[in-house]
Model the fold of this input.
Amino acid sequence: MSLSDHMTRCPRAHDPERGDAARALFPEVDDDLALLVRGAAGSSPYLATLIEKEAAWLPAALDDPDGALEAEIAGARGHGPDGLAEALRRAKRRVALLTALADLGGAWSLMAVTGALTRFADAACDAALRSAIATQIKRGKLPGMTEDDIADAGGMVVFAMGKMGAYELNYSSDIDLICLFDETRFDPADFHDARSAFVRATRAMSATLSDLTAQGYVFRTDLRLRPDPGVTPVCMAMEAAERYYESLGRTWERAAYIKARPAAGDLAAGQRFLRDLRPFVWRRHLDFAAIQDAHDMRLAIREHKGLGGPITLPGHNMKLGRGGIREIEFFTQTRQLIAGGRDAELRVRGTLQGLSVLAQKGWVPEDVAGRLRDHYMFHRTVEHRLQMVQDAQTHSLPVSDTGFARLACLMDADAQDLRQDLTRRLSAVHEMTEGFFAPGKPPEPKTHDFDTSVLHRWYSYPALRSDRSRILFERLRPDLLTRLAGAAKPDEALLAFDGFLAGLPAGVQLFSLLEANPQLRDLLIDIVGTSPALAQYLSRNAGVFDAVIGGDFFDDWPGQAALADALAAALEPEPDYETRLDMARRWTKEWHFRIGVHHLRGLIDADTAGAQYADLARAVLVVLWPLVCDQFARRFGPPPGRGGVVLGMGSLGAGRLNAGSDLDLIVIYDAAGVEASDGPKPLPSRVYYARLTQALITAMTSPMSQGKLYEVDMRLRPSGNQGPVATSWAAFQSYQQTQAWVWEHLALTRAAVITGPDGLARDVEAFRADLLRHKGDPAHVAHEVAQMRARITAAKAPDTLWDAKIGPGRMQEIELIAQAGALIGGIPDRDVVAGLGAARDAGLIDDAGRAQLAAGYALCWRVQVAARLLSAQPLRIDNLGQAGRTFLQRALDVRSLDRAAETLHDCYDACDAVITAALNRYAKAPDAADHSGANTPDDTGRDG
Done:
């Protein structure tokens, strides 16, 4: 279809005579195309020259511009070495001319224009590289390579960087390239010969593209973006480049790789390199420290180029000056660097696409992104017109009225209107981006006479030892002190914040994040002033703050299944097992932190928090168990037989955890008669599952860079610590039917299969339910519970009134009665209230007793969950600050803690009386054997 069918505008001829001369060359074209040729040639000497040179080719190209473009690109890519340099220069002229006319006529969009120029650059690089590699192979300079290796350049890849990488080339762009080769394709002894050959090929490729001949040039090439260009060869081994980036790479290099793309040569090797470089470019935490780096880069460029000062149009640099293209690109890329490690959808190369995705994800307001997209397209269009005039690599606006008049003709605009539009747009871009990069002056702190000795010692803490962290903190400090001064008890709040700061190992990332997100400062002050335990957790895991600004921190709870899907999706791209385990830790900590914050701020109650902590732990096990099994199978083969299930016991099985809970687990496996695994290193089935279980424990508990996942307790397995760490299905059934103690049957009333093969999981649950129906002799169970209660009381007394778990009439004792009721009644329900109902039905307690214990358990649970959130140690009210006391009052729905203490005391006494009365009648042992002793778990205070 003809170009004239898509024209929406037409340039005017600044030099009518030259325009008319060009128009006269094409008497056969229609009026619209004739005017387009006249306006282009009359305002651009460069385009006028191209029109004259390509007069024979142009009419057919204008009749089918898309077909003509594809023909030139294909011709360039497929051209052989003979006459390549001349052929590429001719093709470049044609592509530049056709693209300019399609652009000036409005037939192609900005992205179509830049895409056409970029695709031709790809083709030219590929042809020049293959020609250069062919020469090296022909001369025997590439060890082991034959003509068959020319197709993928013998393992060499050319990375397009910057605008070429993002398909954003302009009319007179340099092309920024990084050339690497895959050293694994060569024997170590041949490495130096191969590298020398690739260096020669790179230089030959560059010369083919950039040497200025009578036919012009193809593209000016710039190879200086490679690692340490002052001392490294123009083509490097991938391994050496990766080592450099991992150890010495800077923020600007990270930003450069946002747009990096394999453009020529061994594209598969190039993709592998970018995949391996992903951790360097895309940090897993929200990298707000990149903002300062980007700001410093902007200032350094301005100073180097002499582009500071106010916006004045004559000579203003549309790329690097205030309000220019680079400011929009830096704004976009920095936002991508901040969050792209967490969200792969942000890892796009194009500036316009980047702004769109950032807006969709909530990182940039939609109206801001829309305005920046519009300004970017306008700026790039002006840039193209400036370069069209003389094919000069310029970004500067004209300094004369004549120059502005010529530019206005190419823009098909009035010169005065263009000046006003440029001023408005440059100012708007500068205003929108400068506030992001350069924070304003901090407010004066609210007046309060803080303890200066506390303020002075801050600079001795690890988080404030670097110059950069101190600079960032100095900007934050006035606002933080203002927020602390606004607390109910400022001096308490100051000491709480001091404790947080003292435990913080590093400060740059957190301080950068707080500076960019003022709402997080309120949350930080709230946490450190309310919950010492959560503040300590936060100081050790400051990265969890990332989740707060991720967009969904305050959304509804997703549930266990959605959590498991999200964790699996987060781990899936990472091939390394250890990296996956570390990522699982970070992911879990963020969700764990979220539950704590929601509870702290009254968004959820204790029951909801308990269910969410359990959902989270179960989701982690659901994802981690198959991961551990797959990793283990690589060495020892798949699990023999039917596999193994993970049984959650105690609070995990019941689906009620708190902030400090460990996980009680049992692993049950069914080898189904298979004696050993089938793998590179076969193991007997019993040994296989024992070591597999230990691998799960290690995966959960090993301290890594992100700490531990959970503490794991396996003591509820058959025979406790003396039994095998994994239990066979047959042995588990036999043990529970013939040898298990009553307390072990009580424990099964709260057991639940968390993960594992469905068939075995169904069998285990069916067996559990059937067993509970046949092991609940009322007299024997009640007697055993009475004995257990006596031993627990003798072994451990409650630390304080606020220790709601251990002690007469408290949570653990109520759970025992509920478990006894469930066992006596033979009900598989894991719920305490259901168990208390069964205890009533069995005559162990009456209706009033059931109601008292149910109400007492609810109160104890609220105290326990709140206490573990407030403090990792037994809660002591005297040590709580005002904010912590306020939270506790809200969590317990009381007006004063003194009144709450009285209520707790009365509750414990009342529940103790109900339990004592229920068990006293069974104080003497029945005729059955005394199964009360040594196999009871030894740590009755575990918070499982």
User: Anything to note?
Assistant: The first helix runs from residue 16 to 24. Residues 162 and 259 are 6 Å apart (CA to CA). The chain is about 60% helix and 5% strand.
